[in-house]
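Both lines are given unchanged directly below:

***
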Amino acid sequence: MSIAEDRPKRRRFQLLLIKPSHYGDDGYVIRWWRAMIPSNSLASLYGIAQESAARQVLGPDVEIDIEAIDEFNTRIDIPKLLKRLAAHGNFGMVGLIGVQSNQYPRALDIARPFRAAGVQVVIGGFHVSGCLSMLDGQAVDLDACRDLGVSIFAGEAEGRIDRLLQDAAKGSLQPLYNYLDDLPGIEGTPVPFLPLANVKRTLGLSTSFDAGRGCPYQCSFCTIINVQGRKSRYRTPDDVEALVRANWKQGVSKFFITDDNFARNKDWEAILDRLIWLKEEQGIPLGLLIQVDTLCHKIPNFIEKAKRAGVTRVFLGLESINPETLLLANKRQNKITEYRAMLLAWKAQGIITLAGYILGFPADTPESILADIDIIKRELPIDILEFFCLTPLPGSEDHQKLWKAGIAMDADLNRYDIEHVCTAHQKMSQQAWEDVYQQVWRHYYSPAHIETLLRRAAKTGIKLDSMVKLLLTFSLAVSLENVHPLQSGVFRLRHPSERRPGLPRENAIAFWPRLAFELAHKTTVILSTAWGLSKVAFRVARDPKRYDYTDAALTPVSDEDESELEMFTHTAAAKQAVAHRNKVLNLTRGAA
């Protein structure tokens, strides 16, 4: 007998990391052939678990097989996974990763068959962490986890996965792992990473990482500050370089930097300098999307260095153009008097701006919302505007206040996806709110305004083909697929087994032909719309006067803005904001 044959066979621990999707209005899981956004939670956990496996945390006689599954782009074949686990004597664990409130019902539906088969399951993410942080530990259906015997992991995983794996290997997962009061540093920790097979299932072959966590601001609708804290923690430039190089080895160079506010990362300049070096000296063709606040243009060299580092798109939480609304939402860092200067600074670098706008603040009415969108279209040089319904997300201050006051909120967590109405409004019925949400997408992405957006792009050096791709997605997702563009992708896929429990199962004879017809119809609409957008972009690109184009939004900021632009005069709060800005300027100029 050879030495190899005499050696004891190593056990193989099966670690399944699953990022759940959620159910669409049709009752089927939202899943795409190619999804829009990569999951940073999944990448983070995969990177951490991979490092633990390399250190043999379960001992030298145990191998850890890790599989990452993002349900937004991959079907979860539960029977197949159960057979795999059974072949290893159920020696393993299912981790439900980064579960948001709207994904929680689907996460539990995934957990049930695994728990019925005796497989250990743990759930983490913003829902369970936010509920434990802000509520009483039993609220918002957390007992459903306990009843199933699913372990709850609250907080962040860096430095904690070894214990979780060791407990699972012994078959003794604890009911609760609560690290909310002990947020780890992330400097020098394993970096987010996903294998190429996973990355290929996203649009544009892109992945993600967080350069920092935590946010100093106190927006009342936000869950991040109550889960990741208000104290910022950072990765080093060496960490960022390591993850960029690891991804570049597999041909990936596009990243969504998921920091809620990269501009407030104290090491932003060192990180951007390292990315600039990687791009300009090492030849890695970086393409970056970052999220920043509306005062980032005041940081010297920030926007210029972002451009050199490879930033092509930037997301801004605009939320409202009403100062009173921003104040009520604790969004004090947003100053409408700075919006135009900030947006024009990004435009000057040829960077596409995407901005979020929330519908359903207390003062909102359908009429006021549409009027505000008209002002934005005329006076702010935003490229892509995306809309959200104000949603009392579990883990936010808004939700906590409503919960403590006993105010009714939608009992179906699947609807907490920031596009469904989940609580009552003082001035709008639920139907009126839902109707105006649908209407604003058509209103902003009207044919006339789409041409305006393309003309602004041509004037400011933005690639028109990039704008066409974004306009195609953001103009169609809601009307065609009834999902927010950030939840969209290419070719919505369904399977009869993925319908929400409690809803009738469709006959396969009817299901598959209907799905094929629906895909054919939607593909026709998409191709027709793409052709129409391309024709407009081609006409704009061929216009010899394209660089002469101007409008109110592209006009340089001047003292006349406050009297000529409706954004500064349409409400008393707007006028007060201008007066306050002028008072501060006069005082500071006087001091100088």
